[in-house]
Design a protein that fits this description.
Length: 170
């Protein structure tokens, strides 16, 4: 969807990088290497997004670092579009509502860094989580968002009067 609205693949990658997770930063050469793009194509798009006020830049010696302008009037809207494009909104909403006693759900790994690697890593912390239903939700989410989903569950399990934690990988 996003790539059909925005024809520059480099611009889409930059929007995902900076708007998928607050606090993501990057610099020209690092972004070019991460995206496997030329520094010139990344520079052009960084300049366009900066001129539009969507990105802020700061200098650290000879290195210029970029990050999303959280004060921009469209920041939340762009962040919402990127989140929907990546499928996070549906995935987390379904998981939290229907799984049981989920205390926290967090995106980790590449997507948390703003890298669209094709695999979404999710960390769930809770109690009494239905693993059969979680497996069903993972398969359903993978089909819907066309990305692999890896889930790590940290479950609180009391043992003889003390609280303990058990980790499950799915």
């Amino acid at each position: 969807m996003l790539d059909s609205l925005i024809t520059s693949k480099t611009r889409v990658k930059l929007l995902i990088k900076f708007f998928s997770n607050k606090g993501n930063k990057g610099y020209l050469r690092g972004l070019a290497e991460e995206f496997s793009e030329s520094t010139n194509s990344v520079r052009v798009e960084l300049n366009r997004l900066s001129e539009a006020g969507l990105l802020l830049s700061s200098n650290f010696g000879k290195t210029k670092s970029y990050e999303a302008n959280q004060g921009h009037p469209f920041y939340e809207e762009i962040r919402s579009i990127v989140t929907k494009y990546l499928g996070f909104d549906n995935l987390i909403e379904v998981v939290i509502k229907k799984l049981g006693n989920v205390k926290k759900a967090m995106i980790t790994g590449d997507y948390a860094k703003g890298i669209d690697s094709g695999t979404i890593e999710l960390l769930l912390i809770g109690k009494d989580i239905n693993f059969e239903y979680l497996d069903f939700l993972i398969k359903k989410a993978e089909k819907k968002i066309q990305r692999a989903v890896k889930v790590k569950v940290i479950m609180e399990e009391p043992r003889e009067g003390i609280e303990g934690w058990v980790v499950y990988n799915m």
